[in-house]
């Protein structure tokens, strides 16, 4: 089951949301992410969080539209986005796409990206998408589509990532090891319309970027 989590970060390209959201997906707004859907006349299924980023007018609007609310206290152990993940998992999520997860608050941005890791370990397909990036975490194998010349970067998020093999990219690798803090994986480029990434041990961030 596919879930879309819309958080309160930066979303400028509303056409991006329309491309990602499909009729079969369950839409969860993490608090202020509901503002973006309101502007687009899209109704979420659920709004979750402490609701400190939504004014009363918006709350009333969504309540009248029978949107479900799950309110939590401001002083809580989890971010609104993590609460949205827990809800999605409780409903049988097999895929979660995050919109609005990247913003000016670097602490929230980094935290939201690292939320991908436990999902990947659970076998859940998970991706962060913003106006310029698609971000996933890989711990085994990945096939990723892209346009020829498009940028693809890999960043270790384990002390060492071993057995890295890259195909379909300008700078291939074969059974390589990259340590955290090394930047050899930055700004590779597609030379085919599909790249293949595999690793034997560790976790890497894979970022398909647009300037």
Automatic annotation (TrEMBL):
What are the UniProt keywords, alphabetically?
ATP-binding, Kinase, Nucleotide-binding, Transferase
Ranges for domain Thiamin pyrophosphokinase thiamin-binding come to 146-205
Q: What's the domain of life for this entry?
A: Bacteria
Q: What is the top EC class of this enzyme, as a single word?
A: transferase
Look up the EC number in the record and give it. Answer: 2.7.6.2
| GO BP annotation list | thiamine diphosphate biosynthetic process; thiamine metabolic process
One GO MF annotation is: ATP binding
Write the protein's name.
Thiamine diphosphokinase
């Amino acid at each position: 089951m596919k879930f879309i989590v819309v958080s309160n970060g930066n979303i400028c390209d509303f056409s991006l949301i329309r491309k990602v959201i499909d009729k079969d997906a369950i839409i969860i707004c993490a608090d202020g992410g509901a503002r973006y859907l309101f502007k687009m006349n899209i109704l979420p299924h659920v709004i979750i969080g402490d609701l400190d980023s939504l004014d009363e007018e918006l709350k009333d609007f969504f309540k009248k539209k029978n949107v479900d609310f799950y309110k939590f206290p401001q002083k809580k152990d989890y971010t609104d986005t993590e609460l949205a993940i827990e809800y999605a998992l409780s409903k049988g999520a097999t895929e979660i796409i995050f919109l609005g997860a990247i913003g000016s608050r670097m602490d929230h941005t980094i935290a939201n990206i690292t939320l991908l890791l436990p999902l990947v370990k659970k076998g859940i397909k998970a991706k962060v998408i913003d106006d310029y990036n698609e971000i996933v975490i890989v711990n085994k194998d990945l096939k990723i589509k892209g346009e020829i010349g498009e940028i693809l970067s890999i960043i270790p998020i384990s002390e060492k990532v071993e057995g890295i093999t890259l195909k379909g990219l300008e700078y291939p690798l074969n059974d390589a090891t990259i340590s955290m803090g090394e930047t050899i994986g930055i700004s590779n480029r597609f030379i085919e319309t599909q790249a293949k990434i595999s690793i034997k041990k560790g976790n890497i961030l894979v970022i398909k970027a647009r300037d």
